[in-house]
UniProtKB/TrEMBL annotation:
Provenance organism: Actinoplanes xinjiangensis
Keywords recorded for this protein, A-Z: Membrane, Transmembrane, Transmembrane helix
Presence of the UniProt keyword Transmembrane in the record: yes
Protein name: Uncharacterized protein
Transmembrane among keywords: yes
Transmembrane portions of the chain: 28-52, 58-77, 97-116, 122-140, 147-166, 172-190
Length: 202
């Protein structure tokens, strides 16, 4: 009887451990999914505004998008991490998004000063710097090599996008810059989906 009880306890512990590992791995997949979606939404805005006459309202919309969307995305991640911490015992400590979220909101004025010049280069299409910076902060906080690698790749794509964006508005190069952002968003989502599948396979 005790042997059967012991085996049952071991199985329960193994199931709990597997659940914790799956939950921990989702701290990799969710940031990629969230910021992949936000990147695609931004791409759609860029594409729509590219077909419209240039205006201050369009510039203001694009200028405000990533500060607002970035904060919203981090809040989603923070709340998800809190639920994981309560349910599976992971998501707190270094896995928490609390520090990154607060730091992002507090540092928005500084970030705006840093990114606005880049943002308005050649028709204000160079926007991948925002998600690259946010994912870098997440990776450094969580010591996540996968997310950090993605952030570096995104930053490099942002540099290429900036070069393409330094062309007249509506040119083939500026549309290529938007296409590059679409590709980056899709890649983030696919990477997040792959990470999520690996987490579920544990």
């Amino acid at each position: 009887m005790n042997g059967a009880t012991g085996i049952t306890d071991i199985h329960a512990e193994v199931r709990a451990l597997r659940a914790r590992v799956r939950a921990d791995r989702r701290t990799v997949s969710l940031p990629l999914l969230v910021f992949g979606i936000l990147t695609l939404v931004d791409s759609a805005l860029l594409a729509v505004i590219a077909t419209m006459p240039e205006s201050g309202g369009a510039k203001l919309t694009l200028l405000l998008y990533w500060p607002v969307a970035g904060a919203a995305g981090l809040i989603v991640l923070r709340d998800h991490a809190r639920r994981l911490a309560a349910r599976a015992g992971v998501g707190g400590g270094p896995r928490s998004y609390e520090v990154v979220t607060v730091g992002f909101v507090v540092s928005l004025p500084v970030l705006a000063l840093l990114f606005v010049p880049v943002f308005f280069v050649g028709g204000y299409w160079a926007t991948l710097a925002w998600p690259a910076a946010i994912l870098t902060a997440i990776a450094l906080r969580q010591r996540g090599n996968v997310v950090y690698g993605v952030a570096v790749a995104l930053a490099l794509a942002g540099l290429v996008q900036g070069l393409l964006a330094a062309t007249p508005r509506g040119s083939a190069e500026s549309w290529t810059a938007i296409g590059l952002q679409v590709a980056a968003g899709v890649a983030l989502i696919l990477g997040g989906r792959m990470a999520d599948r690996r987490a579920r396979a544990v």
